[in-house]
Known about the structure:
Number of strands: 23
Distance between the termini: 75 Å
Oligomer: single chain
Amino acid sequence: MSDIISLLPDSIANQIAAGEVIQRPASAVKEMMENSIDADATEIKLIIRDAGKSLIQVIDNGKGMSDTDARMSFERHATSKIKNIDDLFLIRTMGFRGEALASIAAIAQVEMKTKLRGEAVGTELLIEGSEVLKQETVSCAEGTSLSVKNLFYNVPARRNFLKSNPVETKHIIDEFTRISLAHPETNFQLYHNGVEVFHLNAGNLRQRIVGLFGHNYNERLVPVEEQTTVTNIIGFIGKPEAAKKTRGEQFFFVNNRFIKSSYLNHAVTSAFYELLPRESFAFYVLFLDIDPARIDINVHPTKQEIKFEDERIIYTFILSAVKRALGKYSVSPSLDFNDENRFNQNTSFSRPNKEMIDEPNPKLNPDYSPYKQFEERTLSNQNNWKDLYSDSRKGEDVAIIPNSEFSTGTFTIPSRWETTKEEQTLLSTQEEKKQVLVHLQDKYILSAIKSGFILVDQHSAHERVLYEKYLQQLNSNVPAAQQQLFPQTLHLTAPDFEIAKEILQEIRALGFDVQEFGNTDLVIHGTPSDIKDKNPSKLLEELIEGYKQSMQLPKLNKREEVALQLAKQSAIKNGTRLNEREMKNLLDELFGCETPSHTAEGKPTFVTFHLRDIEKQFEKPA
């Protein structure tokens, strides 16, 4: 039998490595800008075209490279940062593995011009698909200019998996934001398709945050500063009014390197407990300075995940530092950071549990409710009901009729909805005359039916009604806008503005008269005619935030998602008192929908309680 194992050619090996390191244009931007930082550049310019698919160019005034180093920089595992194994645990630079440029050159057409400081001439390199086409001496500016053209040109399958230009541009801006936040002492510029998106002058961290996110952030920042024997923590957190519905504006840096850590994020979330609305996320930019020997950064190709020697103590220090900052600036009660007894009294300080990471509410084990068994028995056959129920009633005991006042009325459920035989038994028909309506805790509408009763979530029900209405309006493409007496200006961050441009056609089809104004602003001249008592700027901002959040796990197409987000923001909120007519109209419209039983996200709009299951609770024969 002949031998079948052989070494891969360098070009193929580099393309495989590129799959780990360069996942999209933003990955190349990250590696190229980090190289400029390591070269001690004080001015860095990023130029992109077609969301980085056609061109990514980084120009810096760093120390440059010799002709030999320029050629060696494109070899795999070629690095100036590591001489022996011990250096892996003393790293404070951005790049060190020697994979980035080799990976980029394997899947793109690369041109580099570089010159050492003080030298008369520099070096130009042309590389295409790992093959060096040209290297010669040229006249150029000090520093390095690296151009990456036609990314993934020789890997069409990878290129086909790239998202739309606005989405890819957003990822590039995210990487630009992280690097520029970590280095406020450096001048940064970003150009997209010839338009300047950012021009950031060197300054302090507060100035850099304001330059990236807008002047309105200046008054929302709370400084954080703590020094411990393990780590020093500095940075800013946002006041509760700066919270967003997405996690996009949350930044952890360890030794000036951006990291992702849901565990440490939970420490900040816990510090804000009871200060933020439900499903809101605090703004923060926090820097941890720690001995490199106490961390391992070589655990992930993108270097955005690291290991700590003692993660729990870091959690504790972050939680305490944020709490103290909130208390010091009268945002929440103060916590004495030096009081060690506090750590012993609160298990979330001394023994943070990793199971708590994805649960912002620390009441993970609500008290036992005698109604729980009833809930489990009667609702076991209702799809997705418990998910909705746990979200809306978490940590509360259930009461069929509260002690507070409730309103009653009558209604007739129409039979326009095509139901199954079983559903026709559960829901009333036109022959059933008048049924009693109960408004429960200003959240639910309770109605008796033949086989028991139904409980309708008023927000979810109204969301379903509006969703189908807006979707129909989008498909007909006949907007109905009501002009504003005084136009409003909506100031967006650069990533949010890119998202807004992607869905601007759908926004206008829904009735918003919106025009682009300046680099990242929108002017609102009109709003949908049926939306009242809503701040147009706030409504549109929340729509964009919701769409941005949905991009993480897309379930619907673009039009459906835009319709859903506007329905979510426009639907009546839980806690709103409805009168008899309003309850009746809502139920009439709900059961006139094509799919009245669930929202567009699959959450139930109503739950059915069967009489036979109720009687079992009282030990009566069915």
